[in-house]
Amino acid sequence: MTRRTTSEEERKLFEQTFKEGRPVKAGMSKAPAKKKTGASRPSGVNGATQDRLKRGLIEPDARIDLHGMTQLAAHRTLFAWMTTAHQRGLRLALVVTGKGNPRNDENAPWMMSPHGVLKQMVPRWLNEPELAALIAAVHPAHTKHGGDGALYVYLRKPR
After folding, report:
1. Between 74 and 99, whose confidence is greater?
2. pTM confidence score
3. What is the CATH number of the domain that holds 103?
4. What whole-number distance in Å separates Cα of residue 143 and Cα of residue 116?
């Protein structure tokens, strides 16, 4: 690899900048900094707890199954249940939503009606301000607790 030689103009510019004591600006601009989104907020649990959740080593304090409920009934039930669980001082709740359409088969007979609505809506509901204030973190459940059809909701300590 050969070394590039500096031109006389570059050398003079360097000497002048060095005498002034100001930083040299790079010729190429850096990429703009990425803005943080709401999805990248801190998880609210420490690394050890997060690892234990991923491995399914923590047993949930309570469980709610929203299978078979309409969207309206599930929303009301989830809101009331999460508020009560937080007031009781529970820390880890398991919210079972169901897997929806795991094969993404649009032509399947069960796809004639809306399917997997709760799996899509529950994370949105948990981000609503009233519930988000009670929640430290939300993670997908381990396989032994429902896998893709369930969520761990780690609640904040009551004040």
Report:
1. 74
2. 0.63
3. 3.30.1370.110
4. 18
